[in-house]
Amino acid sequence: MSKPALDRSQIVQCLSRIQDPYTAQPLGAKQLKSFAADDSHLHVVLELAYPAQRFGKGLAMLVAAQFEALFAGKITVDIEWQVTRQPVANQSAAMPNVKNIIAVASGKGGVGKSTTAVNLALAMAQEGARVGILDADIYGPSQGMMLGIPVGTKPETIDNKWFVPIKAHGIQAMSMAFLVNDKTPMVWRGPMVSGALQQLLTQTQWDDIDYLVVDMPPGTGDIQLTFAQKVPATGAVIVTTPQDIALLDAKKGIEMFRKVNIPVLGVVENMALHICSNCGHAEHIFGEGGGSRLAEEYGVSTLASMPLDIHIREQADGGAPTVVADPDSEVALQYLMMARQVMANVSLLNEGKTTIPTITVSDD
Ligand SMILES: Nc1ncnc2c1ncn2[C@@H]1O[C@H](COP(=O)(O)OP(=O)(O)OP(=O)(O)O)[C@@H](O)[C@H]1O
């Protein structure tokens, strides 16, 4: 029989000295799942509200070090997680197998929205999340190519009603590109597009997903607005380059989500800095700090500032985006940190924490 050497309040107090770097909240009773202590061994099990397969190892070391002041014997800390579900009644009814939907959008085309979406999805999976990606970028679907899914691959169907998503690099993928052929006209009218996309969303048999990343069609017109209205998203990630024109369109994107009451989880500034592969010279090709200024103006987080890096393009074009092609590279780590921030922000939203400010800008 182990004799209790420490009580729960001592453990909780010790935990409260450590701040979760992604939620910016102190650890405490909520995260303490269990503990066992005798004279020689303290075993603490924490449970986070977002996956932490890679990040959890560092956090466990930090927590163990904190307990050294309290306990002289062997200390073991395990980090587990339980992803919370978006508390929206109609979502669980419509998509019982999907806990959270994250819309990735940009005001302007070509800013790297799809590349960011796929690396976000893969980075979430690396942290242990069950992830799906829906390519809703109907006019330029590229997720299949970036995930290395051979052209012409068709999803299986069940009962002539359900599509089975295609698995690639450990995530589940579905795209309009899997259902059309080269001859299908992509110059669809708005209602056809939003109808097809909604069908794709609700008639795919996702296999128990924590986060479904939706690569939205670029722009802020009627199609996007209708779709944003129909997708019961937990939150949106806005991708922009630091260029004035892209920022202006990104603002429209933020305002579009505001109109349909979808919280903005943060802004990703893409192609922020170019480092010459020959001489190492760093240059802000599209201007400096625009994404952060935009995030500040709207009171949302800057999730990442990604460099303009030839490997990002080459690896995505090659069917293995940076997060899987070169998982220990600096760029992959940046994507990983972005993913953790997105998942932590989702957990805060689901808990009803007000850490993510509501957007208060005028309509004009
Ligand atoms: N950070 C980056 N560094 C280098 N190349 C990048 C980066 N981000 C994206 N790219 C490249 O830029 C091009 C456009 O990216 P992507 O297709 O992701 O943009 P998008 O915003 O989704 O475009 P669209 O509006 O056409 O769907 C691609 O060739 C991609 O590989």
UniProtKB/TrEMBL annotation:
PROSITE patterns membership: MRP
Pfam families reported in the protein's UniProt record: ParA (PF10609)
Cross-referenced CDD domains: Mrp_NBP35 (cd02037)
Residues where ATP binds: G107, K108, G109, G110, V111, G112, K113, S114
Keyword check for ATP-binding: yes
Keyword Repeat: no
UniProt entry keywords in alphabetical sequence: ATP-binding, Hydrolase, Iron, Iron-sulfur, Metal-binding, Nucleotide-binding
Physiological role: Binds and transfers iron-sulfur (Fe-S) clusters to target apoproteins. Can hydrolyze ATP.
SUBUNIT field: Homodimer.
Family from the record: Belongs to the Mrp/NBP35 ATP-binding proteins family.
Name under which the protein is recorded: Iron-sulfur cluster carrier protein
Organism of origin: Saccharospirillum mangrovi
Gene name as annotated: apbC
